[in-house]
Amino acid sequence: MTSQDNRFVARVLVYPRAEVLDPQGRAIEDALGRIGFDGVRRIRAGKSFEVALEAEDERQATEAVDRMCRQLLANPIVEDYTVEWVSE
Amino acid sequence: MKCGIVVFPGSNCDHDVYHVLSHVLGQETTFLWHQETSLEGCELVVLPGGFSYGDYLRAGSMAAHSPIMAAVRRHAEAGGRVLGICNGFQMLLETGLLPGAMRRNRDLRFLSVDVHLRVERDDLLYCSNYRRGDVLRMPIAHAEGNYADTEEALDELERRGQVVFRYVDAAGRLEPTANLNGSERAIAGICNAGGNVLGLMPHPERCAEEMLGNRDGLGLLAGAVAVGGGRVGALAAAGG
Predict the structure, then answer these.
(1) Considering only alpha carbons, which residue of chain A is nearest residue B144?
(2) At the N or C end, where does chain B have fewer CB atoms within 10 A?
(3) Distance from CA of B90 to the nearest CA of A (A)
(4) Among chain A residues, CA nearest to B59
């Protein structure tokens, strides 16, 4: 995690949970096969969000982004999320 | 009964519901803008179909955080009637007033067709004009209606009798080909434990008049405004 004047940038990755059927990923997988890419074992289609925020410290930034994920960015019933910190 | 239809940016079935509640069923009906914070004394709140916020992020997810939803939640938790149709059902899932979530339709297509539904509960106010096992024909029009939840949560839903409508064939049989969007356990509509909050993907407001060739949906909206849980005379009054 990098911080400059308490500014943080998170990259949030949201994917369908492993046990949840991912019709988009399945369709892309099939299409890759049709255009000749053999050996593709799996495609999961997800979303990514870049969240630039200001926070007191790393702990507060982490907590805030985690809450954002649980309340809005991801639907925990069908999606998992991961957070990476990037430099602006 | 005073009815309120919440209007979000992108709602497009709000006027259809208004027409049926007001003109067909003769109820006092008003529109409630999503930025309001009061339900203005409405006893029935309808979250209508459409594409609120352009279905950004996930269908219904932005609307679930609209200012009026705090009042809708209080109303629901106090036992008030809340009916979510299509996008409105998606909002109820996103707010957590009903359990589960929606995925893209199994075949990724937007589906706009008539489907058959089997009524699984007739002890609910909403279903007071139907009998258990009745097969209704209603239109669906959605891209994200593929109902999902964990196996344990689905078992719990079944155990508590919260599945109200299932996709079936015309004879009322559960067939994979009748479950077009791929919903778990062919679920088309569910209610909360109290039975006062109902969400369904099909559109009863689009099949509530004989003029439209189908009035299977009228009973549902008539049930939603029924007083005291009894059957209402609305079906007879509406003619046909």
Answers:
(1) A23
(2) C
(3) 12
(4) A75
Q: How far apart are CA B200 and CA B113, in angstroms?
A: 15
State ipTM: 0.81
Domain containing B232 equals: 3-237
Mean pLDDT, 10 residues at a time, chain B of 240 residues:
97 97 98 97 98 93 96 97 98 97 92 98 95 98 96 97 98 97 98 97 97 96 82 37
Q: What is the pLDDT of residues B40-81, one digit of tens each?
A: 999 999 999 999 999 999 999 999 999 999 999 999 999 999
- Taking the C-alpha atoms of residue A37 and residue A4, their distance in angstroms, rounded to an integer, is 43
- Residue A2 resides in a domain: no
Compute the distance between CA of residue A19 and CA of residue B29 in angstroms, rounded to an integer.
43
Q: With contacts defined as CB-CB under 8 Å, which chain B residues touch A21? A: 103, 106, 148, 182
A17-61 confidence digits (pLDDT tens): 988 888 889 889 999 999 999 999 999 999 999 999 999 999 999
Check CB contact of B237 with chain A, cutoff 8 Å: no
Read off the CATH number of the domain in which B27 is found: 3.40.50.880
Asked if residue A1 is part of any domain, the answer here is no
CB-based contact, B185 to chain A, within 8 Å = no
Give the best residue of B58, B105, B107 to mutate against chain A (max A CB count within 10 A): B58
Could you tell me which of B127, B83, B223 has the C-alpha nearest to residue B234? B223
A27 touches chain B (CB under 8 A): yes
Helices B68-77 and B87-95: angle between axes, nearest 10 degrees: 80
